[in-house]
């Protein structure tokens, strides 16, 4: 059992008692490295407990969390209602294999989930345990429903790291290094990044031109040149690219892509694993862009940190027969109740209203920072899915990766947890319940980190 430190702090403000990583953190980091396989670790923060937007480490330091466990703890850490519901369930039933047997909690979770998913059609839910597994399910659903095997993904996209979803993932070379061939049959096309795109268009000034050029490229140079639509099952796209750098496409892009997909009998499969569950100020980012995806994947925040994901599809796309796909833990009872309660809290406590109030406020504060610091080339995002991009030179937009990494580390030393994304951006993704005062606290810590890094 881990000892509670006598110096255990109130979790309501940033408090750095010892420059992190402190002595206790260092010991655990070493033990971690001795026994855990390498993954994608970034900062040596060793958490002991958390509440709301604050996290305490094993040395008694308290941090403001602007990473939310990679956009998972959207209701804040250890939300009292979700905690109480899971605790109650722990004494009744934990697991019963919801793919093979029945229990009401899984049904209720699916009912709640479809009630907040865009689309005025009947839907079916396949529960999974992660984002990558949700995309694996979506790929199989698309193949089974269309009888086709080819797909189109986007450069800069991220969809997970198992072999099927990895074949779409294309935001960093390391993700695929040494793992070829992954699932065959995936072609990649450019994503309309308004800030840096292969067409050389300023997408903030000319959004329509950027959309037209992207759609035209896919239509003329891919579908009409070498990839017959009759063989293409689906496009897999993030409404806002997450791991690729928080890239928000021009408003009209997804509607145009849907039109192209419909004209060619191709499914539009939308990965809302990172954009979903209120992060952008609506339950799903698709709602900002006026589309109703027939295939939508989710995970991360849907059960507030109990592992859970889902592929939510138009009823007509359901697997044609039983046995084509299944798993052991999907729709697990504890995950299901956490998901139900998460959705109810989101609705009843008007969490989206807070995102729509604090999100624009925080973005404005970040824009003010960019006016003071030349090294911030771009501030982008919707709701509380925000990012700042560091550049060597505003004209060339050359990514300033080392500076970005220094800022991330200095912020950590100042008691602010941040997470990088893309080549040179830092994402700002606090729990959705953050207040304006707490957002100010974060911006101040960030500014100190920038000053110390340039
Ligand atoms: C858009 C998107 N899809 C899929 C995934 C994969 O999710 P997981 O790590 O739960 O497998 C992620 C993870 O960051 C993601 O951002």
From TrEMBL:
KW Transferase (keyword) present: yes
Q: Which InterPro entries match?
A: Aminotrans_3 (IPR005814), Class-III_PLP-dep_AT (IPR050103), PyrdxlP-dep_Trfase (IPR015424), PyrdxlP-dep_Trfase_major (IPR015421), PyrdxlP-dep_Trfase_small (IPR015422)
Q: Mind listing the GO molecular function terms for this protein?
A: identical protein binding; pyridoxal phosphate binding; transaminase activity
Per its UniProt record, what Pfam families does this chain match?
Aminotran_3
Identify which cofactors the protein needs according to its UniProt entry.
pyridoxal 5'-phosphate
Query: What domain of life is recorded for the organism?
Result: Archaea
Alphabetized PANTHER family for the sequence:
AMINOTRANSFERASE CLASS III, LEUCINE_METHIONINE RACEMASE
Regarding protein family, the annotation reads:
Belongs to the class-III pyridoxal-phosphate-dependent aminotransferase family.
Designated name of the protein: Aspartate aminotransferase family protein
Its ancestry begins with:
Archaea, Methanobacteriati, Thermoplasmatota, Thermoplasmata, Thermoplasmatales
